[in-house]
Amino acid sequence: MQTTSHAFKDNARKAMADVDLRTALKRVETGFTTARRKAADRLPEFEDLRDAGRDIKNHVLENLDFYLERFEERVIAQGGKVHWCSTPREARETILKLCRSVDARTATKGKSMIAEEIALNPFLEANGIEPIETDLGEYIIQLADEPPSHIIGPAVHKTKDQVSDLFLEHHWKYGRTERQTDPQALVNEAREILRQKYVDADVGITGANFLVAETGSTIIVTNEGNGDLTQMLPKMHIVIASLEKIVPTLDDMATIMRVLARSATGQEMSVYTTLSTGTRREGDLDGPEEFHVVLLDNGRSEMVGTELQELLRCIRCGACMNHCPVYHTVGGHAYGWVYPGPIGAALDPHFLGIEEARHLPSASTFCGKCEEVCPMRIPLPRIMRYWREQAFERRVGPPLERAGIRFWAFFARRPALYRLATRLAIRVLRRLAGRRGVLTALPFAGGWTDGRDLPAPEGRTFQELWKSGRRSP
To answer: Among 24, 136, 455, 464, who pairs with 460 as Cys (CB 3.0-4.6 Å)?
Structure first.
């Protein structure tokens, strides 16, 4: 997909002016957050499970080579094959070679963020293979020729009316000439059109929520039956996954599963949890003749042992963006790449470079809600702060911004001077605010005052309050 992270500010302005997007995002702001809270409250051990999941992931990252090699051994023992790919290009070429080995003309696809990361669909299309998205949300955005706007709800930015228009525009060739407005009717229409495509597909491509070293199994977690049909009906099943999806055992997977759905959609458990282990065996009624796992690194191994390692605990539940006030305001496309929201703000600079993605770590209020709800307890604000520091050290931001930070740092390193300057600034701001007590314009603060008034400071400074608090009994 085309990267526009460098244009985050322009993307955000356009998003805030999009009435349909504002309507659609209300579902994220109210639906997911409420459901997650209720699901967590119903499970007394929820916080303990978060700790256990974090510890499992930390253990894996400390022994990543061992568990990946163990996983490959078990896949081979079950009749499959693992393909190690360092870059997106290698992964794309590997998948294309596998598809061509069975003369594939079509490939059904389950939902996969890694497939988005490597831009698999346009690559297959350019090489004469038609990719068919079977997840309803992914199918909708494929018709719209758009990237996902959310990790678990790729079409969450679409309203029902927009989906109705899309189906009418594209389904006429299947004899569908009536515009449906009932949600269930829209689902049924998509299901009927996709049904034959499952049967006709030569290859099925899925992602993986987990890779289990103990058994060589790959696991997908879905709320639709499309994933099962995608991997069972074609002659070849290709799994595309990244290295950090590995877990030691099925018990470990089950532990993390208990927080995954609750964090993502507020469900006790997703409707389908599907385990794939190797090829079709003698006596099996269905299943692939060939089973391949394409493992993508794409810079992840470089994160191990660095300030970014904790990002590799992410299980792609989307809880951070479901609770993020910035995401609720601008949606996912404003971030300009595959991973939006707080996880994207922390992760994308690693993949794209801080020069391209420098705006993203600053697209945060640092309210801390993302870390509070993350089931793997990833310190997202701290990592975004790390990227802000990197942007400053590498002189990525505009000169005026860097000069402002240096100016502030000069005073911050001199407490007495800082207190004096703060008192003086407060007096000046109060005088400028006048009787109204607000500032309608302020140098270097146009980003705020262009859209709202800035209240003048009142009462004592933070340092004065802190000092008085320490003195109290």
So the answer is: 464
